[in-house]
Amino acid sequence: xxxxxxxxxxxxxxxxxxxxxxxxxxxxxxxxxxxxxxxxxxxxxxxxxxxxxxxxxxxxxxxxxxxxxxxxxxxxxxxxxxxxxxxxxxxxxxxxxxxxxxxxxxxxxxxxxxxxxxxxxxxxxxxxxxxxxxxxxxxxxxxxxxxxxxxxxxxxxxxxxxxxxxxxxxxxxxxxxxxxxxxxxxxxxxxxxxxxxxxxxxxxxxxxxxxxxxxxxxxxxxxxxxxxxxxxxxxxxxxxxxxxxxxxxxxxxxxxxxxxxxxxxxxxxxxxxxxxxxxxxxxxxxxxxxxxxxxxxxxxxxxxxxxxxxxxxxxxxxxxxxxxxxxxxxxxxxxxxxxxxxxxxxxxxxxxxxxxxxxxxxxx
Length: 364
Description:
Blueprint: E1 2-9, H1 17-27, E2 31-35, E3 50-55, E4 58-59, E5 62-63, E6 67-72, E7 77-79, E8 87-93, E9 103-109, H2 118-126, E10 132-137, H3 152-163, E11 167-169, E12 178-179, E13 186-187, E14 190-195, E15 202-206, E16 218-222, H4 243-251, H5 262-280, H6 298-313, H7 316-341, H8 349-357
Parallel strand pairs: 1-2, 9-10
Antiparallel strand pairs: 1-16, 2-6, 3-6, 4-5, 7-8, 8-9, 10-14, 11-14, 12-13, 15-16
Helix pairs in contact: 2-3, 4-5, 6-7
């Protein structure tokens, strides 16, 4: 079953980027809806294979809240211009297997301590062409979706559903979506809504791991959409390389053309190295399969598993400690991976040293 949409309040894009990349490697979602991105307009962000749409929110010159939608580059998408005071962004997406005409998807974040009249939500919804998928952190409580109490925000969302009979909740399982670190309680405040024409073909569940946020990622699946081609790029198998042969092939650089421009020199040098590597280093096959992020390791897997288990079996203090340990290990594994790539004394070190210390064009 294909993951149509991954919805997640990640509480800081840069803080949870490693976790988001882990989720993408695991789930391969076609669309990603994020809340509380904490991005400032000066931040330049992009994510490989995805088109990035965002709405930033600034309070007293500080980035807070904010929403984003990421659409896989294989899918035609464009921004939908709306007039709204809410933290929301909407995109039109073409997926013929889901809908014959483009459908709208919107990501909404409503902070818990502001007053949001029902008409504000209604005004936004009426601007969006149907069919519609709404991925939101409404901070709304209601027994309708599994909460133990009803608050004003929950009442506003209930009124929105009553006023729009063509909209329905997807999360029928009433699974908790939020973990309160302060008191260890769970609640359901992240609500995906969709047009009734879409709901029969969609399924909903939460991820088993909080992924270092205080909100569970929400996975929305569709069984009729085909996954984009994910054929892997062949990689060099360095531990099976014939390094003596590689050193012999790259020892004589006299065959390189006379230096001209920096761009041409880089091109010639790259071709020189690649031709030698093709003869001395084998490659993996371009088999399409799930690929973990480059910094994945057994230690990271165990730490994340313990973090997830602690939410059920450990006291609150121990849970916080394990969450912190898993985050540090995940980050450190990435940094160590970069360090080992540039480690001195590796079989490629003599080439990298020559490259970075080569005289520039015109230098003597």
